[in-house]
Amino acid sequence: MNVLRVLSRHGDDRFEWSADAVRTHDPEAVAAVAEAERIFREERARGAVALRLAPGRPAERIEEFDPAAEQIVMVPRVVGG
Amino acid sequence: MSTVVPASVFFIITLVAAARVVLLLSAWPSVSARIWPWLRLHDWWPVPADHTAEKLLRDVLTHEEYTQLRAHAYLEVPSRDRAERVYRVPRGPGQVQVVEGGRVIERLCLQPLDALPEADVILMHKLLIEGDEHMYLATANHFPRVAWR
Asked: How many domains is chain A built from?
């Protein structure tokens, strides 16, 4: 499963989809990935930073939603303290 | 009645003493950095946000990183831009220390606009440093060594 996590006061909100099922045009998977992309854009518009995670590799900042990413974490807007 | 009163008094005194010992230990960073995360990882932990955040942190960090965080109450994140630089992210309140050649050269303060659980804040620092160190440094407030020495 692929997952989009949005860090929040609730811990993190998870949105999952299956990239494999999307490739076979499974309607539920297509809807799930569309919802994840909508949330991605919504959070980006609020100033969140999106980072793609892969095992054994440093986090990588992304500007566009990547449906093939294993895991995307969205960090809410940060400010100097 | 006379045996019940001393027993209940003894119980209360024991309870208070135990609570004080726990509080004293909690104030010691290397102990609290082990106890609280361990407790938060249990399903029965009463604050779901802390439980979820701690699980995510443990899953994202390598075993070595999570062990370091438990042992020292901070996580070291190597700079991708400067080979000799390490960012020391504390568990709990405190500023991020910038360490070069084993020496703290400055402290950084950066925080999320919305409140996050403690474990998510650690993860936030790690991911931002790895993902966009330039933006991280540009956003953080810098406190050079001369300012707090």
From this structure: 1
